[in-house]
Amino acid sequence: MQYFSRLSPVRAFKDLRLFFAERGPIELVFLVLAMAITLTLIYAFARDSNFETEYRPDIIYVEQYTLNRTDAEITAQQRIDQAEKRKRMAEIERRAAERQASFKRLDDKLKSYGF
């Protein structure tokens, strides 16, 4: 515990000032540059570290139909299936349009910066 009693923020600040006073201006420029690059990389990795939700596959089970179904029953089932398929396709198209709009916004931002 005697080691920690010798620590002082004032002494540490004076030591840091002495360290920087002994350095040349070019070394300080490179110190700032190295810190900026390091902090930029840390920020980029921290920002990019988002975790998406786990992918859960949409399992479609095959139905067993009786062999003696009438054409009317088959047509009725196809209408029901077609309505569900249209809903799924509309959702897929909505998500695609949303994603396309987000890329369009990104492209517009990059164009405003000259890229």
Inertia-based shape: elongated
Mean pLDDT: 90
N- to C-terminal separation? 57 Å
The helix tally amounts to: 4
As a percent range, the share of strand residues is under 5%
Number of domains: 2
How does the major sheet shape up?
A: none
Structural class: mainly alpha
Number of strands: 0
Residue stretches low in confidence (pLDDT < 50, at least 5 long) are none
- SSE topology string: HHHH
User: Can you give the helix content as a percent range?
Assistant: over 70%
Cα radius of gyration in angstroms: 32 Å
Give a description of the structure.
- This protein has 115 residues and is mostly helical.
- It folds into two domains: 1-50; 53-115.
- The chain contains four helices and no strands.
- The two termini are 57 Å apart.
Give me a quick take on this structure.
By secondary structure, this protein is mainly alpha-helical. It has four helices and no strands.
Supply database-style keywords.
single chain, about 120 residues, mainly alpha, 2 domains, 4 helices, about 75% helix, elongated
Task: Describe the SSE topology.
Blueprint: H1 2-5, H2 9-22, H3 25-48, H4 71-113
